[in-house]
């Protein structure tokens, strides 16, 4: 049984996404973009629905960081949905893919280096395991492909 510590889970998601970003930057293989979009969609969903709402309550001192991260996810979802609808031979495909990856990388850096340590310091292991278990369930029903979000999507959450 894999660990369900929420921070460990999300760091593993980041690692997979970083690996795909490195791969695309090296080879510009459009097939890697499809894998990246799928990984990003699942990750975005479980973090937005599982992690942010709970940590807003358990570590309210990080609320403004979470607001910022929700907005970054929203921007990433808009670009991801546009990229999903593009053909790799369109002139802007590579530009949009690289811009999206730059934004996602910056977002993950901020979570890995700044936010996760704050959350680790404020939220107990038991709560983090409960959030992880909830995110594992969310992952099973997560969308696999980007959808164009409406503005509200960044803030809507399913039942916590
Ligand atoms: Fe995130």
Automatic annotation (TrEMBL):
InterPro entries for this protein: Hemerythrin-like
Domain Hemerythrin-like: 6-118
Species in which this protein is naturally found: Streptomyces violascens
Xref: Pfam families: Hemerythrin
Listed name of the protein: Hemerythrin
Disordered: annotated segments: 141-160
Amino acid composition bias (Basic and acidic residues), ranges on this chain: 141-153
PANTHER family: HHE DOMAIN PROTEIN (AFU_ORTHOLOGUE AFUA_4G00730)
């Amino acid at each position: 049984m894999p660990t369900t510590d929420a921070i460990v889970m999300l760091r593993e998601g980041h690692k997979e996404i970083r690996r795909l970003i490195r791969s695309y930057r090296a080879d510009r293989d459009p097939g890697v973009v499809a894998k990246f979009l799928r990984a990003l969609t699942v990750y975005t969903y479980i973090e937005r629905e599982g992690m942010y709402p709970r940590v807003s309550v358990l570590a309210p001192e990080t609320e403004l960081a979470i607001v910022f991260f929700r907005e970054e996810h929203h921007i990433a979802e808009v670009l991801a949905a546009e990229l999903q609808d593009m053909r790799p031979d369109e002139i802007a495909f590579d530009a949009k893919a690289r811009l999206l990856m730059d934004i996602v990388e910056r977002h993950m850096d901020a979570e890995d280096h700044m936010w996760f340590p704050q959350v680790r310091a404020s939220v107990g292991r038991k709560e983090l395991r409960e959030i992880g278990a909830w995110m594992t369930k969310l992952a099973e029903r997560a969308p696999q492909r980007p959808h164009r979000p409406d503005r509200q999507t960044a803030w809507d959450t399913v039942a916590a």
